[in-house]
Specification:
This protein is mostly helical. The protein folds into three domains: about 120 residues, HUPs (Rossmann fold, 3-Layer(aba) Sandwich), CATH 3.40.50.620; about 120 residues, Serine Threonine Protein Phosphatase 5, Tetratricopeptide repeat, CATH 1.25.40; about 170 residues, DNA Cyclobutane Dipyrimidine Photolyase, subunit A, domain 3, CATH 1.10.579. The protein is about 45% helix and about 5% strand. The longest helix is centred in the middle third of the chain and has 23 residues. The chain is globular. Bound molecules: flavin-adenine dinucleotide (FAD).
């Protein structure tokens, strides 16, 4: 006969290592009922997109395996499901790790109040941030608006982030899976049309895959990260973003692993510092979302509220499909479509192109990324789009308009990245690959390129678009 259980509610923390809610549940000494709820009912606009659903399917499968198949799965409104589960299983406590999306904060506080009113203990912990957003503020108590003081003084001024928790001392007893639990397949997470072929070659969702990815990065990517992270054809970035988003690995684990590597090899100090500050940008995004819950829909700088954006479905479609006629933009958008991920440098280029060359609203790009990125993350996505648009905190100034040709030439000088994702241009010499419309007819012919047929002509003239954007932005 099992004792009354406690519920361990998994959300954005799909791992067992360095999982404080799991530790706390174990310490209760009661059997653990592990639960996941696909709660699209409360997510509003921010239901998971298609690529995220693909990831979630595989990540849940991996977690369920680690839990010996005991993960109880539900779909629907968590404010109803959690109290029902407590009653059905006679649970006496619920443990979870905190989430920071405004809709989740509102939902969780509702659940907490209801449970506590019924004398059920609730314990929440921090599993996904280095520093809780409410603990990082300026001396006068207001939130930071500029990254460097936020990170240097607000975060690091508090000391190094806590070290990850070791493996739990207790051996878990899992409560038998409830019979009303669904199977992962019942969640309809996988696409009906098979666009996910390219994903399997690149990604291994789940805790094990996350640790492997970190190991590869430490061995092969970290050295040279500072410079190499700008080059989309190099292996210098970690690609940890979806693993971090789904909580398959904690930022504390990544942080301290890099710190150890820096201690072992002083020549990578600047590379390591640069990586740690990228984790700092993630913290900054979460802080912005926490202090500005409407960050995903409203510009932080109010003067941008009435901005005269264009409406041009044809141009938006060309951008989404990677058919703008600018090879670096098209390579990025196709990398996104084929792999569910895009290199950071190229994210900045394609975002600048959408906003400043096409004059389309940043929210249109944010929504497309939300649907197509495996690392789609409300805080990072919204903060980054606002940064590129120039309407966010500590944002790129509006007059910084990336030239897609010079960006390509600088960061993909041999065109290797373009050749991978825009194969119809693969045979062009590097000299022309960033602006194929300037190539002489015989060069195009030899490379099998017919402008306007095998590859589109540019859908806008960058120089004219830039002048127009500057004039409009200046008018704000
Ligand atoms: P690395 O360079 O290895 O960095 C390590 C980690 O630091 C990343 O995994 C990520 O968690 C964090 N990080 C790195 N750069 C940033 C940044 N600029 N802002 C916040 N955190 C950062 N990142 C997301 O995780 N989800 C998104 O939805 C997202 N949307 C973006 C949209 C736009 C328009 C832009 C310009 C950037 C966006 N980013 C987003 C930030 C960044 O591009 C990705 O985090 C990064 O490319 C992920 O690759 P990586 O793990 O190899 O990064």
């Amino acid at each position: 006969m099992l004792d009354f259980p406690v519920i361990l509610w998994f959300r954005q923390d799909l791992r067992l290592q360095d999982n404080p809610a799991y530790h706390a549940a174990l310490e209760s000494g009661s059997p653990i009922l592990p639960v996941f709820i696909l709660d699209d009912d409360n997510a509003g606009l921010w239901k998971r997109g298609a690529a995220s659903r693909w990831w979630l399917y595989h990540s849940l499968s991996s977690l369920n395996k680690s839990l010996n198949g005991t993960l109880a799965i539900f779909r629907g409104d968590a404010t109803k499901i959690i109290p029902e589960l407590v009653e059905a299983a006679c649970a006496h406590a619920v443990f979870w790790n905190r989430c920071y999306e405004p809709w989740r904060i509102a939902r969780d506080s509702k659940i907490k109040t209801a449970l506590e009113q019924s004398s059920i203990a609730v314990k929440s912990s921090n599993a996904s941030l280095l520093y809780e957003p409410w603990t990082v503020s300026k001396d006068d108590g207001t939130p930071y608006k500029v990254f460097t003081p936020f990170f240097r003084k607000g975060c690091l001024g508090r000391g190094e982030p806590p070290v990850p928790l070791g493996l739990p001392h207790h051996v878990p007893t899992f409560f038998p899976r409830l019979k009303q639990s669904l199977h992962i397949d019942d969640l309809d997470l996988l696409p009906s049309i098979k666009w996910d072929k390219g994903f399997h070659d690149i990604w291994t969702p789940g805790e094990h895959g996350a640790r492997e990815r970190l190991g590869q990065f430490l061995d092969h990517g970290l050295k040279g990260y500072k410079e190499g992270r700008n080059h989309p054809d190099r292996e210098n970035v970690s690609r940890l973003s979806p693993h971090l988003h789904f909580g398959e690995i904690s930022p504390r684990t990544a942080w301290h692993a890099v710190r150890h590597a820096m201690e072992a090899d002083p020549t990578i100090e600047t590379d390591g510092d640069c990586f740690l500050s990228e984790l700092g940008w993630r913290e900054f995004s979460y802080s912005l979302l926490y202090t500005h819950p409407d960050l995903p829909t409203q510009p932080l700088q109010h003067k941008f509220a009435g901005f005269p954006w264009d409406k041009n479905d044809k141009a938006l479609r060309a951008w989404q499909m990677g058919k703008t006629g600018y090879p670096i933009v098209d390579a990025g958008m196709r990398q996104l479509w084929q792999t569910g991920w895009m290199h950071n440098r190229v994210r900045m280029i394609v975002a600048s192109f959408l906003i400043k060359d096409l004059m389309l609203p940043w929210t249109a790009g944010e929504e497309w990324f939300w649907d197509t990125l495996v690392d789609a993350d409300l805080a990072n996505n919204a903060a980054s789009w606002q940064w590129v648009a120039g309407c966010g905190a500590d944002a790129a100034p509006y007059f910084r308009i990336f030239n897609p040709v010079t960006q390509g030439t600088k960061f993909d000088p041999d065109g290797n990245y373009i050749r991978t994702f825009v194969p119809e241009l693969a045979a062009l010499p590097a000299k022309y690959i960033h602006e194929p419309w300037t190539a002489p007819a015989n060069v195009l012919k030899q490379a099998g390129v017919e402008m306007g047929k095998t590859y589109p002509m540019p859908i806008v003239d960058h120089k004219a678009a830039r002048d127009h954007a500057l004039a409009v932005f200046k008018g704000l």
